[in-house]
What does this fold into?
Amino acid sequence: MKNILQRITDSFNSQGLMSTLSAQIVSIDDGEVQIELPFSTKLSQQHGYLHAGAITSIADSACGYAALTKVSAKHEVVTAEFKINFMRPAIGERFLAIGRVVNSGKLLTVCTGEVQAYSGTDYKVIAIIQATIVNVRI
Amino acid sequence: MKNILQRITDSFNSQGLMSTLSAQIVSIDDGEVQIELPFSTKLSQQHGYLHAGAITSIADSACGYAALTKVSAKHEVVTAEFKINFMRPAIGERFLAIGRVVNSGKLLTVCTGEVQAYSGTDYKVIAIIQATIVNVRI
Amino acid sequence: MKNILQRITDSFNSQGLMSTLSAQIVSIDDGEVQIELPFSTKLSQQHGYLHAGAITSIADSACGYAALTKVSAKHEVVTAEFKINFMRPAIGERFLAIGRVVNSGKLLTVCTGEVQAYSGTDYKVIAIIQATIVNVRI
Amino acid sequence: MKNILQRITDSFNSQGLMSTLSAQIVSIDDGEVQIELPFSTKLSQQHGYLHAGAITSIADSACGYAALTKVSAKHEVVTAEFKINFMRPAIGERFLAIGRVVNSGKLLTVCTGEVQAYSGTDYKVIAIIQATIVNVRI
It folds into this structure.
């Protein structure tokens, strides 16, 4: 896991968008990655809640990095597609995206994930995602 | 259309995320909305291309506002879900998201859309989206 | 639960396709429904495995009936859309689709589900689904 | 195209499910395949309309065979995933699924499609699909 921790951290830190959003990786496990995003009015939609685009950005990244924990050092991963359902208004102080590998094949990795909205220590699941990620030989 | 132009412009301008991304609405027609995003390293993924989260943010917004052109002044719209395929690397100077209404029902609007990556006046379609939007009584 | 059991059973029995496929409801709980399908060459794809259309038919129905356990007697449900990933070849003697409600709102119910392929008592998850179901006033 | 016509016809004819549904391929072009399904009460859902599973079966097959027109004789195709929106009640005498290739890559083919419900020569689009298909070396 040591190499993959470094690899994911380096990759995440080189993503301009994650820095622009102020997102942070908070957990990396085999097959599961968590990314946190504090709320900011810079990331709002028209009602002042977190924009679906920001929710999706961390959900997609959490799935992609979860998939990366499953491939060899000779591969990288690219998101082929995902589908996301928004189930509640994205109201909270901070948001946690959790991406999990459901199936890891030679060519494709399938992940599911959720985004939790926190008020203090309470949270509600506001979105769920299902993603297909391609393993690409470097 | 006059009222809907104003309504969409006001809504778009109140979205913190669109301003943070430097996205702009460039076209509003009945059932079709276009949003443009200039490339910036602030929006990159780990290889320096546009991040899937930024692509998705403008694609989702273009679909949502296309749906808004179809509802009465007594309704607003909320994205229930979407699915997006990323077909090529997001390499370009600027990106254009086009959202189009395919079916407009009492409760739900179904949209499709695409994101085009421009180098000069040439473009390639880099992503396609299919979205379900709920009409909500204000 | 008594009324909903009867309601789901009646609805299922009136579906010509479920009878044509020889699918059966095997479990109905609050927020979760399971449908079983024995393999038959009548349901095959070109390699002799279960066709994706058959897998999808039971996955969709399991999600729809799971959603139905959450609505009042004055509502029925209609599938607005779903997304399904096929993760392994559909090889097995019988297949079990499990649909579960993740979020139940006034207008929409969001479900996830999986399809398991059985060889004896062993199974592999061959597909996962994420569905959006509309509550419609009867 | 001659070989691919034969290849698709042979494959389709070996699918037990397509025969059980009474579906037929009615058109094969480079990047586009059409499949027709006459209505039958054997394929109904609880209100007597065509079941979403039958709609999906022909939509998925049309996309898969459209993808097959784009790969070499050394490859076959497998559906990785799709997403389908049901926009209207599936009421009609016959149904036509059209699958079209949007992007054809080395590894993945992305297709979109629609299902039309016919009453006489009039039709309504009742469903749209967006699918990801994997090219597999035989």
